[in-house]
Amino acid sequence: MGGRIRHGRGVLHLPFVPTLAAHASRQNGLVTRQQALECGYDDGEIRRLARPGGPWRAVRRGVYCLDDQWQSLQPVQRRWLEDLAAHLTMSLAHLLSH
Hints:
Elements: E1 4-7, E2 10-13, H1 18-26, E3 31-32, H2 33-38, H3 43-50, E4 56-60, E5 63-66, H4 67-72, H5 75-89
Antiparallel strand pairs: 1-2, 3-5, 4-5
Protein backbone atom coordinates (compact mmCIF):
# COMPACT_ATOMS: atom_id res chain seq x y z
CA MET A 1 0.00 0.00 0.00
CA GLY A 2 1.43 3.37 0.97
CA GLY A 3 2.64 5.65 -1.78
CA ARG A 4 2.77 3.16 -4.65
CA ILE A 5 0.54 2.49 -7.59
CA ARG A 6 1.00 0.03 -10.44
CA HIS A 7 1.74 1.88 -13.65
CA GLY A 8 2.66 0.32 -16.98
CA ARG A 9 6.07 -1.30 -16.60
CA GLY A 10 6.47 -1.02 -12.86
CA VAL A 11 5.55 0.80 -9.71
CA LEU A 12 5.17 4.56 -9.56
CA HIS A 13 6.11 6.07 -6.19
CA LEU A 14 3.92 8.95 -5.10
CA PRO A 15 5.09 11.54 -2.57
CA PHE A 16 2.17 10.97 -0.18
CA VAL A 17 -1.08 9.05 -0.52
CA PRO A 18 -4.04 11.49 -0.55
CA THR A 19 -4.97 10.97 3.11
CA LEU A 20 -1.39 11.67 4.22
CA ALA A 21 -1.18 14.63 1.83
CA ALA A 22 -4.20 16.08 3.65
CA HIS A 23 -2.26 15.96 6.93
CA ALA A 24 0.76 17.56 5.24
CA SER A 25 -1.35 20.38 3.83
CA ARG A 26 -2.53 21.31 7.34
CA GLN A 27 0.96 20.99 8.88
CA ASN A 28 3.20 23.03 6.58
CA GLY A 29 4.19 19.94 4.61
CA LEU A 30 5.05 17.83 7.68
CA VAL A 31 3.69 14.39 8.53
CA THR A 32 4.33 12.19 11.52
CA ARG A 33 5.27 8.52 11.50
CA GLN A 34 2.01 7.77 13.33
CA GLN A 35 -0.01 9.57 10.66
CA ALA A 36 1.81 7.61 7.94
CA LEU A 37 1.06 4.33 9.73
CA GLU A 38 -2.61 5.29 10.06
CA CYS A 39 -2.69 6.01 6.31
CA GLY A 40 -1.46 2.53 5.40
CA TYR A 41 2.32 2.83 5.25
CA ASP A 42 4.32 0.21 7.14
CA ASP A 43 7.59 0.65 9.05
CA GLY A 44 9.73 -0.76 6.23
CA GLU A 45 8.13 1.50 3.66
CA ILE A 46 8.64 4.58 5.85
CA ARG A 47 12.32 3.66 6.30
CA ARG A 48 12.77 3.20 2.54
CA LEU A 49 11.05 6.46 1.68
CA ALA A 50 13.08 8.42 4.25
CA ARG A 51 16.50 6.93 3.50
CA PRO A 52 19.15 9.20 1.92
CA GLY A 53 18.18 9.90 -1.67
CA GLY A 54 14.55 8.94 -1.04
CA PRO A 55 11.53 11.18 -1.59
CA TRP A 56 11.02 11.92 2.13
CA ARG A 57 13.30 13.83 4.49
CA ALA A 58 13.38 13.13 8.22
CA VAL A 59 13.08 16.58 9.79
CA ARG A 60 13.04 15.19 13.31
CA ARG A 61 12.72 11.67 14.63
CA GLY A 62 9.29 10.51 13.52
CA VAL A 63 8.48 13.63 11.45
CA TYR A 64 8.97 13.89 7.70
CA CYS A 65 8.53 16.25 4.78
CA LEU A 66 9.11 15.78 1.08
CA ASP A 67 12.78 16.09 0.21
CA ASP A 68 11.91 18.46 -2.66
CA GLN A 69 10.26 20.80 -0.16
CA TRP A 70 13.29 20.65 2.15
CA GLN A 71 15.73 21.35 -0.69
CA SER A 72 13.73 24.43 -1.74
CA LEU A 73 13.96 26.08 1.69
CA GLN A 74 16.45 28.66 2.92
CA PRO A 75 18.31 27.85 6.18
CA VAL A 76 15.99 30.02 8.30
CA GLN A 77 12.95 28.30 6.77
CA ARG A 78 14.46 24.89 7.51
CA ARG A 79 14.97 25.89 11.13
CA TRP A 80 11.32 26.93 11.37
CA LEU A 81 10.25 23.57 9.91
CA GLU A 82 12.44 21.79 12.48
CA ASP A 83 10.71 23.79 15.23
CA LEU A 84 7.29 22.84 13.84
CA ALA A 85 8.38 19.20 13.70
CA ALA A 86 9.29 19.39 17.40
CA HIS A 87 5.87 20.89 18.08
CA LEU A 88 4.19 17.89 16.39
CA THR A 89 6.02 15.40 18.60
CA MET A 90 5.56 17.07 21.99
CA SER A 91 2.94 15.78 24.37
CA LEU A 92 3.37 18.40 27.10
CA ALA A 93 1.95 21.90 26.94
CA HIS A 94 4.38 24.23 25.21
CA LEU A 95 4.66 27.23 22.94
CA LEU A 96 6.95 28.26 20.13
CA SER A 97 8.70 31.58 20.36
CA HIS A 98 11.36 33.48 18.52
